[in-house]
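Support reply, case 0932

Customer input (verbatim):
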Amino acid sequence: MIAYDEELRDRIGERLAGHARRTVDDPEKRRAAVAVVLVDSDLGEDRIDPAPLEDWIGGREIPGHGLDGRMVDVSGGAAFLLCRRASRLNSHAAQWALPGGRLDPGEDAIEAALRELDEELGVALPDSTVLGLLDDYPTRSGYVITPVVVWGGGRLELSPSPDEVVATYRVGLHQLQREDSPRYITIPESPRPVVQIPLGNDLIHAPTGAVLLQVRWLCLEGNGDPVDDLEQPVFAWR
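Our regenerated output:
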């Protein structure tokens, strides 16, 4: 596990401040933001998945190879908040996601990420909790996503919106450094490798998977390599 303390906050803040952030300026894509919310967690608190399979799977293929799609045994120490989206949503239903959404008129990425965090999880945090921004990630579905790294300051009390979120998990940052992570596969639709981030008993794909990989590389390991060249699976292109 990784300790949730001031040293971690300062180290991540310094790495984000020193990073030459890559931005994407594409007028044909809409702008969106996601919040990478860093919180504390207890070992074993997410061992029992509260979401019945039929409530979220939404026709999504189970990854196989010993995986059953459940987010279990992931908590402990410094963690980030990961949401399982409701299966009835019009887009990207039943997928794993960070809190976030499109920018409203006049908003910047930080304002949008904090607003969406409040709307989706009932957590209101001020601008002062923002540690920095990761690279923009352009998606196949027509967005440029800006990830905003936020220091939650503890465990936080979560009140997920049932219209958008089936369940929210505190996933330990140590999960991002598993020996079997990241994974890459090829698809006939693209020459770019599709990235997969194993978490619990499931695989997280881009764009969320790409964001989480940069959290590992930059925030935890100080590696500024890009992730925008990593492909998304075809089911995420819509």
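We compared this against your earlier run and they match. Two observations from our side: The longest helix spans residues 109-121. The chain has one domain: 6-177. Please reopen the case if you see a mismatch on your end.
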